[in-house]
Amino acid sequence: MIVDCAVYEDGVRRQGHHDLEHLLERIDNEHDFVWIGLHEPTPEEFDSVAREFGLHELAVEDAIHAHQRPKMELYDDTVFLVLKTARYVDHEEVIELGEILIFIGEGFIVTVRHGQATELKDVRRDIEAQPELLKHGPAAVLHAIADRVVDEYQPALEGLDEDITEVENEVFSEAAPNRAERIYKLKREVLQFLRAAAPLGEPMERLATRDVPQIDPEVRNYFRDVNDHLHRVQDQLESYRDLLTSVLEANLSQLGVRQNEDMRKISAWVAIAAVPTMIAGIYGMNFDHMPELGWTLGYPAVLTVMLVACGSLYRSFKRAGWL
Amino acid sequence: MIVDCAVYEDGVRRQGHHDLEHLLERIDNEHDFVWIGLHEPTPEEFDSVAREFGLHELAVEDAIHAHQRPKMELYDDTVFLVLKTARYVDHEEVIELGEILIFIGEGFIVTVRHGQATELKDVRRDIEAQPELLKHGPAAVLHAIADRVVDEYQPALEGLDEDITEVENEVFSEAAPNRAERIYKLKREVLQFLRAAAPLGEPMERLATRDVPQIDPEVRNYFRDVNDHLHRVQDQLESYRDLLTSVLEANLSQLGVRQNEDMRKISAWVAIAAVPTMIAGIYGMNFDHMPELGWTLGYPAVLTVMLVACGSLYRSFKRAGWL
Amino acid sequence: MIVDCAVYEDGVRRQGHHDLEHLLERIDNEHDFVWIGLHEPTPEEFDSVAREFGLHELAVEDAIHAHQRPKMELYDDTVFLVLKTARYVDHEEVIELGEILIFIGEGFIVTVRHGQATELKDVRRDIEAQPELLKHGPAAVLHAIADRVVDEYQPALEGLDEDITEVENEVFSEAAPNRAERIYKLKREVLQFLRAAAPLGEPMERLATRDVPQIDPEVRNYFRDVNDHLHRVQDQLESYRDLLTSVLEANLSQLGVRQNEDMRKISAWVAIAAVPTMIAGIYGMNFDHMPELGWTLGYPAVLTVMLVACGSLYRSFKRAGWL
Amino acid sequence: MIVDCAVYEDGVRRQGHHDLEHLLERIDNEHDFVWIGLHEPTPEEFDSVAREFGLHELAVEDAIHAHQRPKMELYDDTVFLVLKTARYVDHEEVIELGEILIFIGEGFIVTVRHGQATELKDVRRDIEAQPELLKHGPAAVLHAIADRVVDEYQPALEGLDEDITEVENEVFSEAAPNRAERIYKLKREVLQFLRAAAPLGEPMERLATRDVPQIDPEVRNYFRDVNDHLHRVQDQLESYRDLLTSVLEANLSQLGVRQNEDMRKISAWVAIAAVPTMIAGIYGMNFDHMPELGWTLGYPAVLTVMLVACGSLYRSFKRAGWL
Amino acid sequence: MIVDCAVYEDGVRRQGHHDLEHLLERIDNEHDFVWIGLHEPTPEEFDSVAREFGLHELAVEDAIHAHQRPKMELYDDTVFLVLKTARYVDHEEVIELGEILIFIGEGFIVTVRHGQATELKDVRRDIEAQPELLKHGPAAVLHAIADRVVDEYQPALEGLDEDITEVENEVFSEAAPNRAERIYKLKREVLQFLRAAAPLGEPMERLATRDVPQIDPEVRNYFRDVNDHLHRVQDQLESYRDLLTSVLEANLSQLGVRQNEDMRKISAWVAIAAVPTMIAGIYGMNFDHMPELGWTLGYPAVLTVMLVACGSLYRSFKRAGWL
What we know:
5 copies of one chain form a homopentamer.
Chain A: E1 2-9, E2 12-13, E3 33-39, H1 43-53, H2 57-65, E4 71-75, E5 78-89, E6 94-105, E7 108-115, H3 121-128, H4 131-134, H5 138-151, H6 153-171, H7 180-197, H8 201-209, H9 220-283, H10 291-294, H11 298-319
Parallel strand pairs in A: 3-7
Antiparallel strand pairs in A: 1-2, 1-3, 4-5, 5-6, 6-7
């Protein structure tokens, strides 16, 4: 689906609706450009775009099928960039990935969204409000999108952070329930997120430092800034991964401790029950000469002994922390 | 076994059957070439091929004995490439590897299949339908094969993915059966797959970026694309490896939990049985003066006490989740 | 908040209070410079500083929002450096991070503190006492701050070290209490500290070895020295990380051992109690012909047997280390 | 001990016994050379060799004391290479390492064997049968030896492989015996093997690709081939290491499971024994009014009840897999 | 403390005692030099040395405070090298580190020892016995010291090796005692040793291969040799680290096994005791019609049954390996 198709002249959007064909011919000045936004285009829809801007066959295939890793390719005079967006769906504790594919060339930028990718409407609105930025051409739009995508990693990270803190608190709480499943699933999400974000570093690095002729040199510092944010995201994700590995192990320790506590509690009760049973056994013996059996107060005395023994056992178990 | 032997002129297969000898002499134009396909050739069979195309002794030895790691070697004016194919045999949960060895030189390509390697019949049919591709010479065939091999990693990955998800579900299910063996074996397969796929990256990189004179420069971007797919496969496999390591640990936690549950269940029943035994012991004592023994309803009363005690213990264990 | 604003001429602080505006105009000689110190400035406060010294928009944004990773950026003729300070809050066993951001350009240095960052008052006082250093210009101040920040990692490291030693002693003590939580939390702090300190290495390296024109070449060796200290901090933190991973595992072993000891203790008592119960059971049988039952000393004899059996069991358990 | 000392002229061994002294003077043509083979030489034996060929003092020391890591050094115009041989002693499950040290210079090759190193007799015989190879000079011999050494890693690998498979089968067998010791020892061997084989890669790489003037350029491809085999060995060893780490963990899971099974079996029997004890306790009470006690068939009836209760418990435990 | 101060002319020590001041003026020839040895000098002591040889302020500070990581710095025309010595204190199982700091410049070498560092007396004596070496100037001394330091890593390694083997034997012995603490502490020592030795590689590499003008090119090969030994030490330490990690895990398995054995032993005894208790319970019932009770041999028969039952249980537990 073609979502939007605009022509920017001297940083300002030209009024009116524009037809795809012959768009490029209408671009006169160096920094004027066309921005076409698509959402999960059909091969047919994309075909006309590809023909109009002379996009490379391989990139076109990637753009339609998506499921790429973040990367940047240079085809002749076109730059092809793949970005992964991330959103944290809190109630499922799942990182939901989307994909934005971008083509940049002389006088045009084509953006293709797939899946749950961030909508670019807001990016367009924000950047249209800054004509002086738009004058830098498509590279400014590329930066605006990359910046937005990486900025939106932040709330996803925070979602993860909260859930990791929660799982830590659970594992180290008194109850020490088994949280292996939750920890494992959070780790899986962290690994997936890392796989989506980390490979973007290399394209950002290249855009920031090397000579990609399609990128206005003045915009380069801005990509370095994006890369910086990306680094922070990656650092954070890697430390989440390490922490979750440790929590999984700590979880095992906590379970072991709880198991031991259960065992001691059980054993304490068994020991308490064993005492009257033993005493009763003794006075159940059939010896002819057991003087206590003849005492009038023998029975209540023995019951008292039993109670006292059990009580003092209970007290000492309590004091030792077994009960 | 020589499976096929074809001459391509200007992108089109020349009709008729061709004899191995003097094949090269019949190649006139720059992009015309011979494609010889072999399957587990005997040394004798391969000898004539090697002589005809002047293949290097070391590569010939590798081609006959197979069991190479993926690699690319340049011998004078011949390129020698080793690829590993992978197939997931679902009912055995095993990655089955095959091997394809390829020689490319001026005017020829020789392909040798070993083991369960993907058949190249389909690749040949597909590429013969695209004469404009075939015009790029043997490099186009090389790309078609590499592309197919890497594409076929995908279903193998998916097979693994399904089994990993299954094992995750089992480990975190109520029953929490011990899945250490299955997890371990999946990990072994992942490691084996990784060992087969990862080293291919370096040759693809070289074919994509550096000057391998035997490769038509226009085909280079296509190898970069293959490399990209390979990267995704590798990323995926590495995260499988990490996940399986974590699942193995989580499996231990789950076992610990189940073990604890069993222990608590057993202990609860033992405690329930200990109560009537203790009471019975008390009334089995032989004191002369135990008034209860003389009561008419003493016996049914004690039985009732026993039942009530057991019942309330049972209820409280049930409530605590021990039973 | 603007904390201080001073002009240094020939290594000496010029008397009097200075207004922000037109400060640079008053700098005449090459090594004279202005040092402006800010603490969590509002955007408005920082705006005038940024305008006066022509600071780059991206760096300004970073300086106000903080939460950067340590890094160095070159914007035209300004150097922008981010440092993380670390302080160990012993009673909470937490590393508290702060942030210092520094701009250096021709004739000026601007320092911005955020959070719990080390106060720079002392640095200023110390360096003002060394006019010959101040003559090297802003680079000398930059070094003084970096040196102080890295020096203050040392007490934080020592705090960690103490707590790690303490946790080791606890884990390997007789009581072998479960220390999983404390170990885990120390590890989290170590990872966080590492993330704050390690990335600083690259800027220090660049300041020490490469041509950052804003840095007086004579000051370079001093940055190498800072980098060296940083390396030591990083080595130490990495080995803490490894050790804590091992302690967590050792903790599990110790728990297992203690659990086993508890189990053996319990079992020993159960075994001791089982013996008189069994003997009493035997003499509680109702056979007509049990000669012992008729003996006058039967009962005391059996009691003695019971005591002796229990006593010798107790002794042998004691000797085996079960009790 | 000097094992052999031969002069090769134009690829053919010159007849007769040769004296060490003045050997080099008798070499006339470029590709003629002397090959001296030693086995654990005494310092005196080696001294004369070192003097004759002008070997560097440091290399000489290494050659006598052995226990080097694989490496290559260039001393002026002499190449010094250290190789580690590996043999798997199956009944001890131990990798036995040997060492071969090689000096190559203009017109000579000196080989020194230490410990259980592969005998070079066969290598000498094989290469003497290929005069066209020997014409390439000492480099051909160097290749023949390196090739042999790396080829002999293969059976060692296979020995390890078999034992690892065996240990896997044991760990995952019904009996699930504790195999921690065996796994650990195999891992130790794998690490030792890896330490012996891996560092050889760098010298092979250098021999294959860079300009070591003592190596005939035509022989270079052959070293690349050796390096390739070495890579495979290393890949294999690294995956053994990873697998053994996982097996060790899986072993723990299996032990946990078996422990749980034992516990359940024990508990089942205890529960079965507790039932008749409890019933017997009840009928051992001394109430005056217990009608069952007066029944003629009371005793057999109770016995029957006990048997039935035990039997049905046994059956249900059996069905639940506890027995 | 100034330990020794000698002037070497043409490889020979000049007789007599020398005063620190004006020492350098007395050096005439290119390879003549002064060697000053200090041990934990006070700042005052070191000050005069620093002034005499023009040592850089930063290096001087390092030399007095020690606690550096191994490194090499070039200050103008002075080389500053930090070495860590290691000694294994066997009865405490602790690696004791010392530090040697070396300054080399035109015509002088200054060595500073801290802590338990190897004494350099022997090095001095050995090298004074080799005038031809001393002629190479201070670089020869530098090599002699580095060589000695790295050589002395060997006995420390061997001490560790012995203790690791001992701990392995303990862990896998019949008794399988918990060795977590000892393993952990050995690992800590290995990590500390590694941290002291590994960073020395880079300076040795630089001394061996690059142009450090203060180093006589003829001495370079010797540093490569030291580096080689260092590599071996590092390889060894890294494999110790890996092995200790595995032993710690194996220790857990062994503990689990022993715990299980304890549990089975206990359970077996409990089962053996349960049988006579159960039988006694049956014959303790008060049924009027229990024919066995009236038999004259009833009591001894039951006792025999009990003994036989216990005996056969004992035998079968013995056979199953539970007792």
